[in-house]
Amino acid sequence: MTSDGRHILPHRLLRSGTLYHISIADQDTLIKDYHLTTVIDFRTKSEVLEKPDIVMEGVQYCDIPIVDEETTGITRSGKLDEIIKSFKDIPEDSYVYFVHSYYLKAEDEGIVTATTEYSTHIHASVEQGNVFACQFHPEKSSDIGIQILKNFVEL
After folding, report:
1. How far apart are CA 9 and CA 12, in angstroms?
2. In 10 A of CB 41, how many CB atoms?
3. I want to staple 103 with a disulfide (CB 3.0 to 4.6 A). Which of 1, 66, 122, 131 is the partner?
């Protein structure tokens, strides 16, 4: 619903993950049933290169990355043996997905478990006791995000 109470008509706006793995049947459904004409891809250039979408005939593609490449890397904070178990098997400077116009600044820097740089030093994740929070979106962070979520579930 829009701010003035109007609704977007059904099948006019679809939200999806990547389309690199889409089947022919799903392509036909999007084009014939949903009348897909435009795909707007918000991924970074490196994400598009890593897993390019399947090009569907008659569909216009617009690449509009909403995050600069240099904003996506996270660096661990603290001593290696003190790092949260959620980052087990996650390589240093891994790329994760941020999409906010605000950032986390922990009052106690001792709870910061990952950081990144984007115009300023950003605390990308914190941990204290049984609480873990992250500024980035692990569910949208490809294989790295999946590993972080698996690690979290196994805590």
Report:
1. 6
2. 18
3. 122
